[in-house]
Structure formats: structure tokens, C-alpha cells
Amino acid sequence: PWETCQTFSGSWGYHRDENSWKSVPQLITMLIETVSKGGNLLLNVGPTARGNFDSRANERLDGIGEWMKLHSRSIYGCTAAPASFKVPQNCFLTYNPERKRLYIHMLQWPFKSLHLEGYKGKFRYAQFLNDASEIKFSSPTTPGSHTTETTGDGDVILRLPVQKPDVAVPVIE
Questions:
Q1: To 5 degrees, how large is the angle CA 91–CA 61–CA 33?
Q2: Cα distance between residue 72 and residue 46, in whole Å
Q3: Measured between alpha carbons, how far is residue 146 from residues 60, 141, 157 in Å?
Q4: For residue range 91-110, what is the model confidence (pLDDT) as tens digits?
Q5: With contact defined as beta carbons under 8 Å apart, do 114 and 104 qualify?
Q6: Rounded distance between C-alpha atoms, residue 90 and residue 131, angstroms
Q7: CB 82: neighbour CB atoms within 10 A?
Q8: pTM for the predicted model, two decimal places
Q9: Residue 101 phi, psi dihedral angles, 5° rounding
């Protein structure tokens, strides 16, 4: 177990003229990456001299909170995924060992599919966390499977919608 302390901006305390604030997607990605490596994230925010959070801090806290309402299962109680799960390109994996659930956090939206190398037989169902919609999948040896991707026998192809879900970082459970 390890922990990192990061800031919302380039300053460890309130600084009126600070302009290097991290965006909501950057902060969410920082949280996901930390958990995916078995760590804990402390996020520092400095109040003004009046004891209030600046509007920029509140905007980011609200954004993280909105994302967490739909995706907290992929963070709380989670840690690094077992080494038997290869990390897809432009993704982070988190894993809940108690619930035996794997979460794929997609940092870039692929076109219509996600290739999971060596995942065949490791899961029976996949869904988006934001709306609980099912994600269909196939493998090269699945009867009736028509894949044009180059895959190995143990690989799985998740069939994704063309359009990215309307969340900062989509998560597949």
C-alpha cells in the first residue's frame, strides 16, 4: 500500500492568481491511475482567507462527485488488477478482490470495439457502469462470431457503441 498527495493546481494552498488548474477529467484519471497501482490519492485543496473553497475548486469537486455517483464501485474497495489481466491500450484496470470484479477505465474512446488479450473465459457479462447497459462480446472461436480483428484464441472483443458515453471516463465492469 502507498499513498500520494496531489494538488488541484500548481499551489499547495490558495493562490488567487494560480492558472494551472487540473481539469475534471485529469483529476479523475489521476484517481483511477493511483487506485490501479494499488495506491490511495490525497487531493489537496486550499481554502481562501475567508475559509471557503474557490469556485474553480468547487467546480472540480462537483465534477469528481458526479463521476463518482456512477462509478464509485470501480474505486472504493479496489486495487491493482491481478497480473493475469493484460491492460488494454489507453486504459487502466482496477479490481475489487472481495467482489471479484474487474473494471476497465477507458481514457480514449476506441472505434466500435475493445480488444481484450487473453480474457476468454475470465468473465460472463460486461456492462457500462454509467447506465448498466450490457456490452456484447465475442471471441474468435465463438460459434457464429464474425470478427475482422486479428485476435488470438484466448482473446475477447467487446462491441462498443460508436459514440462515447457522456461521462468523463467511461468504465466497463
A1: 20
A2: 24
A3: 43, 10, 11
A4: 999 999 999 999 999 999 99
A5: yes
A6: 22
A7: 11
A8: 0.90
A9: -120, 135
